[in-house]
Amino acid sequence: MGDTVAMRSRLTRAAAALVVVVAGFVIGTANASAHSVLLETAPSSGGTVAKPPKEIRLTFNEGVEAAPDAIRLFDSRGRQVAIGDTRHADGKAEVIAAPVTRIRDGSYVVAWRAVSADSHPVSGAFTFAVGTASAGEDTRGLVSRLVDDTGSTTVAVVLAVTRWVIYLAASIAIGGLVLLWMCWPRGWDSRRARRWLTWSTVAVAAGSLVSIGAQGAYGAAQGVGSIFDPSLWGDVAATRFGEVALLRAVAAIVMLLGIRGLTRARTRAWVAVTAVASGAVIVSLAAANHGLTGRWVAAAFVVDIVHISAMVVWLGGLVGLVAWVLRPDVEADVDAGVAAVRRFSTVALVAVGAIVVTGIIQSARQVGGFPALTSTRYGAVLLVKVALVAVVVSVAWVSRRLTHAWADRGSIDGASDPDLVERETRRYLRRSVGVEVGMMMAVLAASTILSSTIPAIEAVALPFKQTVITDQGFAEVSVDPARVGTTQLHVTVTNPDGSATQVDDLSVAISLGDPKVGPLDIPMDRYGSVPNHFVAPTAGFPFPGVWDLEVRARVGQFEERVFTVQVPVR
C-alpha cells in the first residue's frame, strides 16, 4: 500500500513538473514574432565579390531554427557545391551561417530554409557572383526552381491532420473525464467510456510523436517518406516545437496511468495525477504554434490555456454525450440521460462564456484591427470559426429547450407512453448533440488552420519580397511593409547569370484595377554606390488591393529591361 501511494505521489510531482517546464518556455520566447523575415545576406543578393566568401551568412528579424543543410549552394549548372553545416553564428539565434571552402570564379545560387518561432518554415533563394561570371552562364531556371520549392504538400497535409487529431483526442480524453466527474458519475462503470478515454489518450501521445517527424520533413522540405527519418527527429527534438511535443507525449502517458487508476479506485491521489497530467497536455497545446509569439505573451499564454481548456471540455463533453450517455443500448431511463444533459448544459454554458471572452482577447492580440480582419487569410478563417461557434450555440440552445420541455411534461406530440417518451427524447437528444459534434469538428478544423496561419497583425506588417525572372535577368522587388500608406520600396536588377549589372536609370510605376488608379510613378534613388540597387524610402500605396508594379531598367544607351509583378497591399 505504501509503495502504491509513493508511486502516485511521484506521478503527481512528475506531471506537475511538466506543467512548470512547458510554462517556462514563455520566458524564452516572450518577444518572438510569428513569422521570420530575412533581413540581410552575405554575400549580398545579386552582388559580386572579388574573392570567394569564407561563409554564407543570413540575418533574420528574429531567432530561427535551422537544420544542418538549411543553407545549400549551387553552381550555375545546377550542381550542388559541398559546404559546411549550417549553424547559428556569433551566438545569435537570428543569424545562421555555413562555412564555404574555396570555390572558383563564376555565378552561384544560394537556397535557404529556416523555421520561425511559431514553427512555420520560411525559405528563399538568391544569387551572387565571384570574380567575373563566365559567358553563357544562366541561373534563371535554377533560381526559379529553388524559389518555388516550398516543400511537400502531402507533408503539410499530414502535419495539419496530425494537429487536428491531437486536438480532437485531447478533447475527448479531458472533456470526457470532466463529463464523467461532473455530469454522469455512473459512466465510470461504462466499458465504452473507459475505452474511449484510453484510446484517445494514446492518440494524443502517438500524434505528438508523429508530429515531430512531420515537422522535421515539413521544415526540411522533404517528402512524406522522411517523416520517420531518425536524423530529422533528432533535429526537431532539440527545438521548442520538439520539446513541447515530447512533453505532451509524456504527459499523455502519465494521464493514461491516471485514467487506468481511476477505473479501479477513484481516490484523491489518482484524481490528482490525472488532473495535473491533463493540465500539462493543455499547457503544451497552448505552448505550440502562436501560443508563445506576438504581443502580451505572458498574459496571452494564460488566456490560451483557458481558451483551450474550455474548448476541450465543451467538445469532449459533447462527444461523450453522443458516444456514451445517449446511446440507445445504454441501460438508463430518460431521467438519467436528461439529468446528465442538464448538468452538462451548465458546464457548457461556462465553457462557452470562457471561449467567447478569451476569443475576444486572442483576436485583439492576433488581429489588431478591422482592416487586418478583413484583408488577411487569418482574419477570414477567424470569421468562419466565429460563425460556426455561433451556429453551434444556437443549435444547442434550441435543442435543449425543446427536449427539456418534452421531458418535463412527460409527452411528445401528445403521446404520453413512458417508453415512447424515453425513446423519442433520447433519440432527439442524441441527434441534436450529434449535429453539435459535427459542427464542432469544423470549428476544430478552423482552429487547426489558424494555428498554422500567420496572425493577421503580423501578416499586414510583413514585407512583400519576390524575385521576378525573365529572359532579361532578375529583378528582386521588396515592399516593406506591404500595407497602405508610406512604405519602403527596394529594387535590385541582376543579369541572367546572377551577376550585378550597371543600371543607368530605373523607374517604377504602380496601378490598381479596382478601383481604377494609376499608373502612379514612384521616384527611385540609387542605393548608395551600388550600381544595380535602387530605393524609394517613402513610397506610398493609397488603397488596399493587388497592385501591378512595373520596373523599367535602362542598361546602357539602348537596352531597357522590363519586369512586372503583382504586390498585395493590405
Task: Pick out its properties.
570 residues, alpha+beta, disordered N terminus, single chain, five-stranded antiparallel sheet, 4 domains
SSE arrangement:
Layout: H1 2-23, H2 25-28, E1 38-42, E2 48-49, E3 55-60, E4 71-75, E5 80-81, E6 87-88, E7 95-99, E8 106-115, E9 121-130, H3 140-147, H4 153-182, H5 191-219, H6 230-237, H7 240-264, H8 268-287, H9 297-325, H10 334-366, H11 370-375, H12 377-409, H13 418-451, H14 456-459, E10 464-470, E11 473-480, E12 485-494, E13 505-512, E14 517-522, E15 525-526, E16 533-541, E17 545-555, E18 559-569
Parallel strand pairs: 2-9
Antiparallel strand pairs: 1-3, 3-7, 4-5, 4-8, 6-7, 8-9, 10-11, 11-12, 12-16, 13-14, 13-17, 15-16, 17-18
Helix pairs in contact: 1-7, 1-8, 4-5, 4-9, 4-13, 5-6, 5-7, 7-8, 8-9, 9-10, 9-13, 10-12, 10-13, 12-13
Instruction: Look at the helices and sheets and give the structural class.
Output: alpha+beta
Distance between the termini: 65 Å
Report on the biggest sheet: 5 strands, mixed
Our Rg estimate from Cα atoms comes to 29 Å
Mean pLDDT: 78
What number of structural domains do the residues give?
4
Give the low-confidence spans: 1-5, 14-34
Estimated share of beta-strand residues: 15-25%
Q: Strand order of the main beta sheet, please?
A: 2-9-8-4-5
Please give the number of β-strands: 18
Principal-axis shape: elongated
